[in-house]
């Protein structure tokens, strides 16, 4: 499977044991059966591993963890919190933009397309990589979590320091094993409108992230998004 999917070469060999494991075969069977039953699955298959296709393992500088893809038509494209050009930014992303503006003075973009971040080494990883249309969390517990744990472990094993931005209890629990003696782990509430005012807004994670990277001799992230 890992030879014919859209996945950057740097991830293929390290993740091969996962692709060859029984749980991935079961996950594949589940997804095939769901499609055969006429269910719409987002994002499309070519974009399931988009985060790791745009951000090579040896280029990861920041990890942002999401939960599962957006479940509305035309939204999900394989990067957590991101939507395709022309799709209005969802509420959580609007709050991320509010924090960016407050923290770094970056004007809020008129779109929600985050590939510019991914191309700079920001791994925009969802814990679960697929979802059924209009059914949030429909594919949780089917095997994706084990796969994305393996992805996080590979990043954690890197020699170069990485910044983990963990927003909300789910992300914080998932990455609880990250080595904080080597990497910077920043925690805040989830940017959802339900929780953003409990510590996400005002967290200044974007400036703290860049300050850490620069302190390690690494280039900062350009968080300003170009027009699309």
TrEMBL record:
The active site is at 68 (proton acceptor). Its EC number is 3.2.2.27. GO terms for biological process: base-excision repair, AP site formation via deaminated base removal. GO terms for molecular function: uracil DNA N-glycosylase activity. GO terms for cellular component: cytoplasm. It comes from the Bacteria. HAMAP family: UDG. Belongs to the uracil-DNA glycosylase (UDG) superfamily. UNG family. This is Uracil-DNA glycosylase. It comes from Sphingorhabdus pulchriflava. The lineage of its organism: Bacteria, Pseudomonadati, Pseudomonadota, Alphaproteobacteria, Sphingomonadales.
């Amino acid at each position: 499977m890992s030879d014919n999917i859209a996945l950057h070469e740097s991830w293929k060999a390290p993740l091969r044991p996962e692709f060859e494991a029984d749980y991935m075969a079961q996950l594949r069977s589940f997804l095939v059966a769901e499609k055969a039953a006429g269910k719409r699955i987002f994002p499309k298959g070519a974009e399931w591993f988009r985060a790791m296709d745009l951000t090579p393992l040896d280029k990861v500088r920041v990890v942002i963890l999401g939960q599962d893809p957006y479940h509305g038509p035309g939204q999900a494209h394989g990067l957590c919190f991101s939507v395709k050009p022309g799709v209005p930014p969802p509420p959580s992303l609007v709050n991320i933009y509010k924090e960016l503006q407050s923290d770094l003075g970056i004007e809020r973009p008129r779109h929600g397309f985050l590939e510019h971040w991914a191309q700079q080494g920001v791994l925009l990883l969802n814990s679960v990589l697929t979802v059924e249309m209009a059914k949030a969390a429909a594919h949780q517990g089917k095997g994706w979590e084990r796969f994305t744990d393996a992805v996080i472990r590979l990043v954690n094993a890197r020699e170069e320091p990485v910044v983990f931005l963990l927003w909300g209890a789910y992300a914080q629990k998932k990455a609880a094993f990250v080595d904080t003696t080597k990497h910077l782990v920043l925690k805040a509430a989830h940017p959802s409108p339900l929780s953003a005012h409990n510590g996400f807004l005002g967290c200044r994670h974007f400036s703290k992230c860049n300050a850490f990277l620069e302190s390690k001799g690494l280039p900062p992230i350009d968080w300003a998004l170009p027009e699309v």
